[in-house]
Amino acid sequence: MKDQELPDRSVELWKKMIPLAVIFFCASFNLTILQNLRDSIVVTAGGAEVLPFLSAYCVLPASIVFFGYYSRITSVVPAKRVFYLALVPLLAAYL
């Protein structure tokens, strides 16, 4: 009986893992491209000495603010809307 259940569970697992792997690849690819593009634009515009300043005084405070925002919406908003509300500030930062 276990031999008959194994292929079904295996197929179900692959049906979940392949889309997740594609999403992970796309997210990683986009992140890498955007980081490299950002660094090349910043170095060209302001020089390499600007990168530590941006990391310390822009990226770190923005990530702390986003963490507070995310913790607030997870406690107030239903779980189905949290993804979309968390996505809005991230899209606004890239646009």
Mean pLDDT: 87
According to DSSP, the number of beta strands is: 0
Shape: flat
Oligomer: single chain
Beta-sheet strand percentage?
under 5%
How far is it from the N-terminal to the C-terminal residue, by CA? 55 Å
Structural class: mainly alpha
The helix count comes to 3
Radius of gyration: 20 Å
Helix-strand layout with pairing:
Blueprint: H1 2-46, H2 50-76, H3 79-94
Helix pairs in contact: 2-3
Offer a concise description of the structure:
The chain is mainly α and 95 residues long. The chain is 93% helix and 0% strand.
Explain this structure to me?
By secondary structure, the protein is an all-alpha fold. The chain is built from three helices and no strands. The chain is flat. The model has no long low-confidence stretch (mean pLDDT 87).
Relevant terms:
95 residues; mainly alpha; 3 helices; 0% strand; 93% helix
